[in-house]
Amino acid sequence: MEVSTASADHVQLAQRLNELHQLLYARGGIRPSNAAVEELTKLLLVRIGAHRQPNLKVGRHRLAELIDSDRVRAMPDTQLLKDAFAVVNSLPELGGRVPSDGVQPVWPTDEPLRITRPDVLSEALAILATIPLGAGNTIDTVGTAFDVFLRGKYEHAGGLGTYLTPDSVVRAMARIGFDLIDPMQGAALVDGPVMGDPCCGSGRFLVAMLEEARSRGQADDVAELGDSTFGADQSSASVAMARVNLLAYGLSHPEVFTVDDSIVDSSLDRLRGQLRLILTNPPFGDGKYDSREGIRGTSARLPGLGSKARIDPALAFVARCSDLLAPGGVAGIILPDGVADGPHMRELLLGEPRLVDPVRLEGVVSLPTATFAPAGTMAKTSIVFLRREAEDGAGRRVFLARANHVGFLMRKGAVGADPEGDDLPVVASAVGAVLGGSAVPKASRGRVLTSDLSSLASLDASSLDAAALGARNALSKQGGRPFDSILRGIKRRRAELRKDVPFVSVLHVDELGNVDWLQANTYQPTTPGIVAHAGQIIVSLLNPAKFRATVVPEALAEIHCSAEFGVFEPRISPYAALALLQHPLVRAQIAPLGRGTSSSRRRIESQDVQRLIAPPFDEDWVDKAGRQVADALAAVADARTKLTTAYGWGR
Q: Which of 12, 186, 552, 604 is the least crowded, having the fewest Cβ atoms under 10 Å away?
C-alpha cells in the first residue's frame, strides 16, 4: 500500500486549516464553526479576485497589496479587507450562473466579512497564501475546512446526516466514473450540463469531475469545461462555497444554485434524462424525508416506498439521480451500508429487470468506517455505481471492491496520515483495468472481484470474498437452485418464558448441528426467545462465519430459541435440507456475509439464507441423506445422555 500524493496533500492541508480554525474560532471569535468555514470561503474569494485582477482598486489601494499578510497585520482594523470582500463579491465575472441564465454574486450583496482582528486576519491570509489555485490543484480547500472545522457539528437542516466526502474518495469515484463513461463525448452537441451533483455541498465532486476531464485531455483550457457541469444544494451557504471552489479551480460563472428540494425542484427537471455522469454523497437519515411529491416520484423507481409517509432521503436521491441520467448514463452514489444493501436497493438492482428504462448495477466499492471520521461519524458506507440502461443486463459482470484504508486516520481528535496508506488509488486503477477488459491485477486480488450479476445475493462489498462468489458460480453451473425453493422463512413468534420447554441458545449448537439438549432443558434465559416447532430448521443469523443450524427433532413438539435464530419450514426432508446447508460450497457462500462493524457481531437476515445457492439433488439423495443425518444427530444426542448417566451428573 502507498500514501498517495493527493492523500498526503489532504493531510497537510487539514493540519494548516486546523491552525486556521483555532485562529478564527478561538481567537477571532467567529462562532459557531459553520461561520468560521464561511469566513474562510470569503477570504478565499478575495484571494481569487486578487489572483485574477491584482490591480483592481479598493478605494486608493490595489487589491493584491491589500491581501499581503504583513501589511494587514499593521492595519488598525479590518475595514479595508471588509471593503475588498464587498468589491470582489460584486464582480460580475466572478458571479454564479443560475438556471434562468442570469448571474448572481457568490454571496448575497449584504453579506459582510466578519473578522474584526487584524492579527487573526493576517495569519489567516498567510495560511491561505500557501494553497495553490487553478486547474491541477484540486485540493478542495472549502470541503476540507468543513471536515476540520466542524467534526460532525454542522447545523444540519432537518436533522439529516451530512458529511463531507474525503478527497481520496472523491478522486477514486471520479476516476471510476470516467472509466465507466466518457461524459464529455459529444458534449458540444448537448444544450446544458452533462455531469454534476444534485446535492453538491462545497462542490468537491464538481471540481473532481472537471479535473478528471481535464487530465484526460478533454479540454486545453479549463474555461472550456465550464458549461459541462452543474451543482445544486438546499443551503445557500454551501452554494456560495461551491462557487468559490470552482472559481479557485479556474472556472468563470460556475452553474451552482440553491434549491428548496433537489428531489422535486423544477430547476433540476430541465436536466431530466440529460446527465451522463452524477457523483454525489446525498444526505441520509431513516424517516427524515416527508415530501409527498418527492416520495411519489421516488416510488416510480422504488415501488416499496409508495405507501410510506417518511423515507430515507438517500433513497429519494437514488431515484432522482436515476431520473436525471441520460440513457447509458452513470451515477456513483455514497450510501450508508444499511441503505446500500437494504431491501429497496436490492430490489432495484438485483431484482427482476424492469421492462422499460431499467437501472442496472455496475459495481460497488466498500469503504472503511474511518472514511468519515474527520466529519465526526464512523458510519459504514459504500459507493454504488449504477447505470440507466434499457438493454437486458442478463449475464453481465459487475465489479466489487473493498478499501480498508483511505490514507488518513483520526488520532486524538486530529487528522493524521494512515501508516497503512491509501487503498483507493490501487482499487480505482484495478477497477479501471477490469472495465477495460483486463484481468484483475495481481496486487488487487482479494480487494477487487468481478462477478456475474445473477450470482450476487447482496450489494455488500465489505464481504468481498472470491471463494463465496466462486462457490455460487460453481453451484449455479451445476444446476443448483436458491434455498428459497427449499426453505420457507417463518414469521418469528415471540415465546413466553417457560421452564417446561427447552430453550436453545447459539452456544448450545455446534458446527455440525448437534444440540446439547441436556443444557437446553435446564437453561433459564433472562429474556424470552422465539418459537420453533418439530421438523423446522433454526439457523443462527449472528456471525455467519461461525455457522450454526439444526433441526427441531420430532420428539419435541415445540422449543424456544434465542432471537439470533431464523426459523425455516423445509419443503423437503428437514435433515436433507440441513445437509445442503452444511455443504462446503454453501458454507463458503454464507461465511463472509453479514452487516455490522464488528466481525463477531455481524448479522444476516433470513433472506440471505434463502438467497444461497444449494447443490443439485434428486429424491433418492433426499431420502438417503435425510435418514443418514437424522440417525447421526440422534446418535450424538443418545451418546450425550449415556455419558451423563455414566458420569453420574443426574444424581
A: 186
